[in-house]
Design a protein that fits this description.
The chain is of the alpha/beta class. The protein is built from 13 helices and nine strands. The chain has helices spanning 5-15, 17-24, 26-29, 85-100, 158-162, 174-188, 194-207, 212-225, 230-234, 239-251, 263-274, 279-286, 290-294, and strands spanning 32-39, 44-47, 52-55, 58-64, 69-78, 107-113, 124-129, 132-138, 140-143. α1 (5-15) crosses α7 (194-207), α6 crosses α8 (212-225) and α10 crosses α11 (263-274).
């Protein structure tokens, strides 16, 4: 069962925190000592703006080289439009400062905007009077839709791969984005364990909208590029497993057939076999016995 969006996104940031900072904040990256990183228990902070108590998404303690001490980094994903979000970030910062100012010399708030809309997210809260600035608070931000996806396709960064589909691209570029994501994923297979690979794929699957014709075209290309990775390629897109089922509902299943392979599923299986996949690989992907697959050869 796929992870809910917020849970999956949070897990991605927890698991690949260093990769996230390297990707989007290279100057900050150079100042952090990742060997001393500790995620703190979720803080329950009172949100005056929303008149409610809320847990921070992610809060971690890490050593900062410039201060030779520990600092706090607060990560807050935001997926919807909120005109008061910048005020909310200041309130969270204020609560953290009040609670931790004696222990930590610096608090860095970071917002990650994941909305599909392209807009300028407000990241500053100011209070001024003539000739005097009372307050200027500005948090760091990443607006994913404003990121050009082509900048990241040569990267071996797991966060870049997981979030590629949330970056800025046109409808005509969608198949290119899908293709490049899968190539990035195949490269990640050489250095990540199965658990981390599954996390990258689960987050990416939240954003990609599978297209059967496009995916079949990409299958052919990947099979040529990675001839020894047939079974691994089959496991890349969970949507493949659903094609036959969805088509069976749409087209109807022949009367009198209670078990066996549905029409739509059989068509997909034949095409995969034709493209060079072994019966064993197809069996594992579509979750049917090898014997049933071989009947269609």
């Amino acid at each position: 069962m796929p992870l809910p969006h917020d849970e999956a996104f949070k897990k991605l940031l927890e698991t690949f925190f260093q990769e996230f900072i390297e990707l989007f904040f290279p100057e900050l990256d150079s100042m952090l000592d990742y060997s001393e990183t500790r995620f703190l228990m979720q803080e329950l902070l009172v949100d005056i703006v929303g008149e409610e108590a809320r847990e921070l998404d992610l809060l971690l303690e890490i050593r900062y080289k410039g201060l030779d001490g520990y600092i706090l980094i607060h990560l807050e994903p935001q997926s919807y439009r909120d005109t008061q979000f910048h005020e909310r970030m200041f309130i969270y910062f204020s609560r953290l400062f009040e609670r931790y100012r004696k222990e930590h010399k610096l608090i860095i708030p970071i917002a990650i905007f994941t909305s599909d809309e392209i807009r300028e997210e407000q990241d500053t809260l100011e209070m001024v009077i003539p000739e005097h600035q009372i307050l200027r608070f500005q948090f760091l931000k990443v607006e994913l839709r404003k990121q050009n996806w082509r900048r990241f396709i040569d990267s071996d960064n797991a966060v870049a791969a997981a979030l590629l589909a949330k970056m800025g691209y046109t409808t005509r570029e969608a198949i290119e984005v899908r293709r490049e994501f899968l190539r990035m994923f195949m490269k990640l297979k050489t250095r990540l364990d199965q658990g981390r690979l599954a996390l990258v794929m689960s987050v990416a699957d939240l954003y990609f909208k599978p297209d059967r014709d496009q995916d079949e075209e990409i299958i052919k290309e990947l099979m040529i590029q990675y001839p020894e990775e047939g079974e691994a390629i089959m496991e890349l897109m969970p949507a493949w497993k659903r094609w036959g089922y969805e088509e069976g509902i749409a087209e109807g299943i022949e009367q009198g057939i209670e078990k066996g392979i549905e029409k739509g599923q059989a068509e997909i299986i034949r095409k995969l076999l034709l493209h060079g996949f072994t019966p064993e690989a197809v069996s594992k992907a579509v979750e049917l016995p090898v014997e049933e697959i071989k009947k269609l050869m």
